[in-house]
């Protein structure tokens, strides 16, 4: 069952069901449902990464990992974990785990960094003709990206 804890009635129902399950002492699963990124936002990010990859001669995956996640958005993506043998390691979260707001912030940072530091302007979401041309060029260069 899904409950919206901002809603008083749902909150009461959640608390009642939680108490019942707690008394039973069984195995339960609890997950938080967060707003996920939109498909449109995913597509837009992929095109930006593709344009940067084309401009720099890197793969889309490298651009995503090295520049988008690690360099521009480490506070959003980098997670430190302890490994039994390697000690402290840093892993990068998946973009699938981001909310729409986090993704918006990450994209804005990447666009700003790309323009100011790399000298590569990346189109805004409303520059549809340019985004379409990137999509075509990515298809042409598919084997290298």
Describe it.
- With 145 residues, the chain is mostly helical.
- The chain has helices at residues 8-24, 39-56, 60-71, 74-77, 100-116, 128-140; strands spanning 78-83, 87-92.
- The protein contains 6 helices and 2 strands; from the N terminus they run ααααββαα.
- A hairpin with a 3-residue loop joins strand 1 and strand 2 (87-92).
- The model has no long low-confidence stretch (mean pLDDT 92).
Distance between the termini: 42 Å
Return the string of H and E elements: HHHHEEHH
Question: What level of helicity do the residues show?
Answer: 55-70%
Multimeric organization: single chain
Total helical segments: 6
Number of strands: 2
Strand content: 5-15%
Cross-sheet strand order for the largest sheet: 1-2
Gyration radius, rounded: 21 Å
Largest sheet: 2 strands, antiparallel
Low-confidence stretches: none
By secondary-structure content and strand pairing, the structural class works out as: mainly alpha
> Average pLDDT across residues?
92
Task: Briefly characterize the structure.
The chain is mainly alpha-helical and 145 residues long. The chain is built from six helices and two strands; from the N terminus they run ααααββαα. Strand 1 and strand 2 form a beta hairpin.
Key descriptive features of the protein:
single chain, 145 residues
